[in-house]
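Human: Not sure, check this?
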Amino acid sequence: MKKQLIIAVGIAALALPATAGAADYGAATCLNGYVWREAFPGDNVCVTPATRTRTAQDNAAAASRRDPSAGSGPYGCQTGYVWREAGPNDLVCVTPNIRDQASVDNAAAASRRNSVNLTLTRSNGKHVVNATNVNNGRATVGLWWSSNLKPIKSWKVNVSGNRFALRTDKPACDNGPLNAFFQVKDPSSGRWSQRVYITYCVPID
């Protein structure tokens, strides 16, 4: 059985690059190609630009589509229209296909966010960096010491389909302190993923 050497380093006053980019709007940031729907204040569901435009048009036409005598109170809809229900209190009257689209968009909301989610798996005893909800392009994967934030190694990865899997040359060690971490930087927004800590070691004979 091969032995492994756990490596430790001293503490220094260094820091990682900034965690936000020019197009970073926090946890609700959308992947490229999507924008906030804005059906109501605080509606940050990510949709296509065409859907946002249609949403604004429906909001503008809301009053003209109401029928208080329809039996659903002052926000009842005229025949042929239904409540959009993009949120619990969204009573804008739209056609049934638009309500269906709002439901589909709500269900897909998490998959359209630029959350840059990082997980680790293993292949042949080496770490594999897996990322989802990342913009297509050239992402950066970094491995840093956790004690002083000095870089150990970085990789550039081509992203397609808003995900990737990078097979690294770093051994996956099971015992020892969590002395290093992986992190992924989105190529468009500059958002960084969460840190995933590992025990960094090198095999010895």
Q: What stands out?
A: The CA atoms of residues 146 and 180 lie 5 Å apart.
